[in-house]
Design goal:
Elements lengths: L2 H16 L14 E3 L5 E3 L3 H21 L4 H21 L16 H16 L8 E2 L4 H24 L6 H25 L4 E2 L8
Length: 207
């Protein structure tokens, strides 16, 4: 999805959500339930709320990552991904039993392919992996590994939700590919910083 189109969609959704001077607190969730787009109320412990909550957490982690990156192109890419995760989370937060117009273009296979293209470009400039690596190296790479594992958790939550309720396959593929991209970005961040990936050397000796 082109960045300009996505930003237009998000601004439209923001106007719809916050028109009328929406208050920060509503007290409607004080008993442990929350509202989905489309009117249904569900427990805050439901698989759907857990899934979009994990996506929201991933989005927040990416904000931390972006703040620690010096490479402008990488920061811009993460901002684009954050916007796409906002759209993904909004789709998960709608009532699956109703046709709900979120006022924004949903993620599509082209968005998954864009992530694949980014992985391929970064991977061409990196030495081939010959061993498992541990999360770490430079500070930006370490934060990217935190984001990668947070993404994996979000993916698991969405997969779990898909076992019980309708979830478009594109959302699962997007999160799956995003975790691969974050892994590759971590290696690239180490390369730019002149830091080595941390190799796994196994355990020395026996217990």
């Amino acid at each position: 999805m082109p960045a300009a189109r996505l930003q237009t969609c998000l601004r439209s959704a923001e106007r719809r959500l916050y028109s009328g001077s929406m208050k920060i607190y509503t007290k409607t969730g004080d008993r442990g339930d929350t509202g989905l787009f489309g009117g249904a109320r569900v427990s805050k412990a439901s698989p759907r709320v857990s899934a979009y909550g994990d996506v929201d957490e991933l989005n927040s982690v990416l904000g931390v990552v972006a703040a620690h990156l010096s490479d402008e192109s990488s920061r811009a890419e993460l901002r684009q991904i954050q916007s796409e995760l906002f759209v993904l989370g909004a789709e998960l937060a709608k009532n699956p039993d109703k046709q709900v117009d979120l006022g924004m273009a949903l993620l599509a296979e082209a968005d998954v392919q864009r992530l694949e293209g980014l992985i391929d470009v970064l991977d061409q400039s990196l030495p081939p992996l010959k061993t498992f690596i541990l999360p770490g190296g430079s500070v930006p790479a370490s934060f990217l590994h935190v984001a990668r594992t947070t993404c994996r958790r979000a993916e698991r939550a969405v997969v779990e939700l898909a076992r019980a309720e309708p979830v478009r396959e594109e959302l699962i593929r997007y999160l799956n590919r995003l975790s691969d991209l974050l892994f590759t970005m971590a290696r690239s961040a180490n390369a730019r910083a002149g830091a080595q990936d941390v190799p796994w050397v196994g355990r020395q000796g026996k217990a």
